[in-house]
Amino acid sequence: MAVRKFSLISEIEARQIEPGSTVELEKGGHVTPLAADTLRERRVTVVPAGSVDATLPADLAPVADVRRIAIGADHTGVKLKAVLIDHLRKQGRAVSDLGTANDEPVDYPDIAGAVARAVARGEADAGIVIDGAGLGSTIAANKVRGVRAAMCSTPTLARYAREHNGANVLALGSTLLEVPAAIEIVDLWLSTPMREARYIRRLLKIRRLEERF
Amino acid sequence: MAVRKFSLISEIEARQIEPGSTVELEKGGHVTPLAADTLRERRVTVVPAGSVDATLPADLAPVADVRRIAIGADHTGVKLKAVLIDHLRKQGRAVSDLGTANDEPVDYPDIAGAVARAVARGEADAGIVIDGAGLGSTIAANKVRGVRAAMCSTPTLARYAREHNGANVLALGSTLLEVPAAIEIVDLWLSTPMREARYIRRLLKIRRLEERF
Predict the structure, then answer these.
(1) Could you tell me the end-to-end alpha-carbon distance of chain B, in angstroms, rounded to an integer?
(2) Which of A92, A132, A208, B6 has CB atoms 3.0–4.6 Å from A76's, for a disulfide?
(3) Do B165 and A107 touch (CB under 8 A)?
(4) Which residues of B40-77 are buried (b: 16+ CB within 10 A; e: fewer)?
(5) What would the pLDDT profile of B19-77 be if each residue is shown by its tens digit?
(6) Active-site residue among B30, B75, B87, B164?
(7) Interface confidence (ipTM) of the complex
């Protein structure tokens, strides 16, 4: 699908752009304030001209506007999970809690695998997996085709994970993060879009690894 | 294969234990100092009685005595890679450098995929992959069956990655680590064995995810 390119987006243009789509703005181009509001409402992503590579599959970059989140934690992450679910629901997102519910030991690959499959099947726009360090859940979630999971212990990593690697699953270490830090990481991860074609193109090579090995 | 169990390992026993194998020591059991030297030479791993689950596949836990390492870095990690190769070779390990060689941009999935396949095929006992943050290489390497890749930004994570998750590929972020910290992480990761059956058992579930999704 060809990407529409604009030099000016006024309210009239904004109302004609398909909700949820991505459009390009020419260098020196302008979006009127009213149009900017409308674009936000319609969840339209505006990127610099030349950013979008029409030859790349449309489903390669992760969903930019995350509305439905699948979340899961092993026994070490139950408390952090509860805090995050509350936080995300207050932001108006739909959260599906895939367990576990108490501190009885469970195996992280079961939980991370369930969250990863929900994302891979398109039942969730993104996923969050929690275990003690976040490393095991990252390994397990990445074993599911279509999932790119990244363990982020800092906000900087959260931004990288999205911008550079299009991570659609975020892994957190419950024993390594205080609650406010975890919330900051989650919020930054959710609000960072993946925009640059040179990074998106690399995801094709990850897809090829999934298919071949 | 049944695991041999000892209450005392003296030099005589130590010389009869198969090199590279794992044996159990009874609670309150003892290893003589001379035997300890011999066991180290013969790369024998001594674990507490009951640690080894004979029903688990022998190739599930990562190689404890890492002699052959495959290493690769994208253009951001060439310098760190050179330092690590030198460090590892001085430790007497065989290191195969899978690129890249200069600062011309390459795609991290190509490099991480090559290192991961070397480990999966048994051409290397373990692998190290480097890119700017380490996140993308972790995703890519985990797409290869048999590989468990973990991005470790601290020594604590390096120990966890091995003890809990049996990571056979270590991912490092070149822009986030100073050289001495990277060396400390690599050394701790290489010298930490995976011993506990309850953790090893979880790797079976990761293998099942690889086979099914």
Answers:
(1) 30
(2) A132
(3) no
(4) eeeebbbbebebbeeeeeeebbbbbebebbbbbbbbbb
(5) 878 888 999 999 999 999 999 888 888 888 877 777 778 788 898 889 999 999 999 99
(6) B164
(7) 0.82
